[in-house]
Amino acid sequence: MAFEPSLLRTFVKVAEGRSFTRAAEALNSTQSTVSAQIHRLEAQAGQALFERNTRNVTLSRAGETLLGYARTILQLNEDAHAALVGSHFAGRLKIGVAEDLVDDWLPKILKRYTRKHPALALELEIGIVTQLLQKLEARELDLAVGSICDAKIAGWRLWQEPLVWAFAEKRNLPDPLPLAFFPEPCPYRDLALRALAKSGCPWQFAGSSPSLAGMRAIVRAGLAATPLPRGLIGAGLRVVEGEKGLPTLPDVEYVVHIRSDDRREAVTTLAGLIRDAAGRT
Fold first, then answer.
1. Among the listed residues 148, 25, 94, 126, the one whose alpha carbon sits nearest the alpha carbon of residue 264
2. What is this structure's pTM?
3. pLDDT for 239-271, tens place per residue?
4. How far apart are CA 177 and CA 203, in angstroms?
């Protein structure tokens, strides 16, 4: 008996989100429907695909085996449909992406999207999220992806992580405390300056860079500390929150933005693809 693609799709969503509830949200379904579909798939497989308890949903050994096959089957199904039916998406989309996402999973998603829709060209602009959002509202961009620190800004939420102070891994913070920031407009800079003013922590300005690579170079050299999302604390950096009186910073959210009045299917489809893929990282 062949596995039903709809059941495999539900299985993949549960496996990636480790949750029946999150899978139901991603599929615009209900938890009871998702649970029933998994039971049907397990009946077809002849064994349990998940190990369930009150806190976690984890893959069984059989589930781990099936996951790779399920993804391949669903991808082949999509590719076959695109090859036979063809894509009606055409023209050009201008995408704005924050610098810290261009070396991660997002380029793979954009490549996959253009492969499915060869008549649609993507134009990519790398920049600071604040500026990208301004260009989006000015209709100079069709979609923007990056982190925000203002909950009032609308968007499709991808994930959330803490904003922390970063410094060179094997060095002690000097006195007086040197800090570096991205140039205006930068949400990390604004949040950090407000937190510093509120805490009364003494510091001095020690550098700036418009690029993530440049900022990391300043920090790794021990010239200054800077605020960064925790996920960007890579090799050569460490978190120094609380040292020298540095205040705790709020979380940042990574979001995909489209204009509220933009109903184009090519745009909403790409935004949905990015949101789904972010849930797997």
1. 94
2. 0.64
3. 998 898 999 998 888 889 998 888 888 998 899
4. 5
Place of tokens 């096959």: 69
C-beta of residue 205 within 8 angstroms of C-beta of residue 218: no
Give me the chain's average pLDDT, please: 87
Give me 229's structure tokens. Answer: 């999302």
DSSP for 207-263?
EE-SSHHHHHHHHHTTS-BEEEEGGG--TTEEE-TTGGGPPP--EEEEEEE--TT--
- Rounded Cα–Cα distance for residues 38 and 174 (Å): 56
Look at strands 57-59 and 237-239 and give their pairing: unpaired
Q: Quick check: 228 and 244 in contact, CB under 8 A?
A: no
SS3 state at 119: coil
Residue 14's Cβ-count burial label (10 Å; 0-12, 13-18, 19+) is: buried
pLDDT, tens digit, for every residue of 42-101?
A: 999 999 999 887 677 889 999 999 998 998 888 777 767 666 665 667 788 999 998 888
Q: Is 97 helix (H, G, I), strand (E, B) or coil?
A: strand
Domains in the chain and their CATH numbers?
5-85 (1.10.10.10), 89-281 (3.40.190.290)
Q: At what angle do helices 106-116 and 265-278 cross, to 10 degrees?
A: 140
